[in-house]
Amino acid sequence: MVKLEEVFGVSRKPVLSYIERQEVDVLFENALKSDKQIIVYGASKQGKTALVSRYLIYDDCLAVSCSPKSKVKDIYNSILRKLDIEIMTNEQKSTSANIEAGAVAKIKSKIPFIVSGEVEGSTKVAGSTEQQLTYKTIEFNLELPQDIFDLYVQAKSDKFVILEDFHYLPIDVQKQLAFDLRTFQELGLRFIILGVWKEKNRLIQFNGDLQDRIAEIPVEPWDETEFISVAKKGAQELNVEFSDEIIKRLCAESLGSIGVLQELLKLLCVQNGIVQSQRTKKLISNLQTLNCAIKSKCDDYSSRHVRALEDIAKGQRDFKITDGKKPLFLPYYFVVAILGMDFDSIIMGVQRKKIDEAIKDRHYRAADIRPSDIGFLLSNLANLQASKKIQPPLFDYDVSQRSVNIIDSTFYFFFKNCDKNEVIENIENPLD
Question: What is the pLDDT of residues 409-418, one digit of tens each?
């Protein structure tokens, strides 16, 4: 019997309702056959991980999750550790000797590199000679791509490196990796980068030499035909049938988010008592059960998104009164401005000029707001959300297009279904 969670829902594991898309899957397959670095990008819960895991087994790759605190050397350290290369720093102790080393690596092996004698490399051994050592030492610099590649070759690896949540990295780390990616591409070490953003050429902005060296795969937009295919393929696996009216409503409510569609399909099945494949085909046509699924998912998303908006509105809270005036509290006014937008505005991306106008329309010190204040606010959105541990982030500022984009695809569903005035009223006003 096929279980419901194997068919529908958001999961790190491949689901049986996965469909191949000509403009996405074929591009990714071709990229795998090339020698280019691969960038998979799009809003959260739009199928980036599902795409990669469709064609690559994660356990056969060197997958590293990035975080706001990750440095370049931390990422390379993780890669080497997954290759069973142990980094030795300062003093490495064994049962009969102290091995003092600056930056060396132990490459584990089933066959001893050294049966007896001194350790290879620039080290000093105090005490008796270690016998039957199953490693050798190599001096290297943890921040140099060439050295990382040499160790990769020593480990006899040909695995892809998958960098997940690349968008969480500080901008300076993203820039450094953009430069290193060119070196790795020339050497033959392949990376697959997964990032939550919407614009093309994100990494090329950091390093123009990546032009023609990377393959960019956008996972969105999804169209209605693809949504219908997902619903019907999953229905076939469960031996159920969705009425045309149900499918039409599902497509409309999902607002272009495959993650929302998958979750609504899963909840709809639960509402109809379906938790595994049926022995006899069952028709799902009751709109009331779909309404219940929509309300349940709206409540689920609301609790998370309202909390995220409250945290963003608080800013860093290191405000100080200067010249007898209260601070500008721009993060709060930014959140209020976004909630005051119409749906069509946020789904297309909100231009900086429009945000500026919306903030000043509501602000208690509009005349004191300088362009640089708005610029700092928008440029700092990523850091602010990271510091508040908002994962995935809601907003991304595209400097080249001067617009704020929604990069959590579930936010559209929340935005359309919530009472925005009520949300604003429940967010603490710093003036109070």
Answer: 999 999 998 8
